[in-house]
Design a protein that fits this description.
CATH architecture: 3-Layer(aba) Sandwich
Number of domains: 1
Strand content: 15-25%
Number of strands: 7
Bound molecules: zinc ion
Distance between the termini: 39 Å
Structural class: alpha/beta
Helix content: 25-40%
Number of helices: 6
CATH class: Alpha Beta
Length: about 240
């Protein structure tokens, strides 16, 4: 058990996003004795040419549960439909309630500069949900809970303006990360023409090369989060 247990919650637009963006970090923190959880805003059930959305939703839910079990993460599903996730207060309050229930310390989600509207909306919803969850004057069933911070993970569909500032060594958790991601048929290459497995394996290696770790994941802090305060110029 870690000396000071933290709880990392990753919020993904479609089942599979959270694991691909932050699966290494989730596996690593679970191995270290911390608490982890995943929120799926939608199941991402419209991307299979051979199955109806209802049929694929059943499969994606099972895949998400299998991946979460391998990562050691709790899982929450919101009831929104793939490609129809609205950026509205109802969605933000649903997520606010999950944050108040699960009490994470760190929230991780998509960067807003995405080619997919569900990803952008998830980013905007998470920001509002974090704010609502922390405000005691917003009365919900559960009391307010403030998270320490929010950060953005790297996703192939969210490249516009994503500039990583934090490299996390995931070498020790890499095999678990890949095993979890492979629970999704789309990652193994049987559904999408996008080469998910190759991309995220290569990304972990490339980020590892740049940070001198074996394998790494990249994150980007919100604007202003890395500001340093000092009474004189740092390093002098
Ligand atoms: Zn997605």
């Amino acid at each position: 058990m870690a000396d000071r247990q933290v709880h990392i919650m990753v919020v993904g637009a479609h089942a599979g996003d959270a694991e691909l963006m932050a699966g290494g970090l989730l596996a690593k923190y679970h191995q270290m004795g911390h608490k982890t959880s995943i929120v799926h805003m939608t199941l991402g059930e419209k991307g299979n040419r051979n199955l109806t959305p209802d049929e694929y939703a059943v499969q994606k839910r099972k895949e998400a549960q299998a991946a979460a079990e391998i990562l050691g993460a709790d899982t929450y599903f919101l009831p929104y439909k793939d490609a129809e996730l609205p950026n509205d207060d109802e969605a933000a309050y649903k997520l606010c309630d999950i944050i108040r229930l699960a009490k994470p310390n760190l929230l991780i989600t998509h960067w807003e500069g995405s080619i997919h509207k569900d990803h952008t909306n998830t980013c905007l919803i998470v920001r509002n949900a974090q704010f609502y969850a922390a405000l005691p004057t917003i009365k919900r069933e559960l009391p307010a809970h403030g998270c320490w911070s929010l950060t953005y993970a790297e996703n192939w569909e969210d490249p516009k303006g994503f500039v990583p500032d934090t490299y996390v060594d995931i070498t020790s958790a890499y095999d678990t990360f890949i095993e979890a991601a492979m629970q999704y048929e789309m990652v193994s290459g049987k559904i999408s023409s996008f080469r998910y497995r190759e991309y995220y394996e290569a990304l972990a290696t490339t980020r590892g090369c740049l940070s001198n770790f074996g394998k790494a994941e990249c994150y980007m802090m919100p604007e202003g989060a890395l500001v340093r305060k000092a009474d004189r110029f740092p390093s002098f």
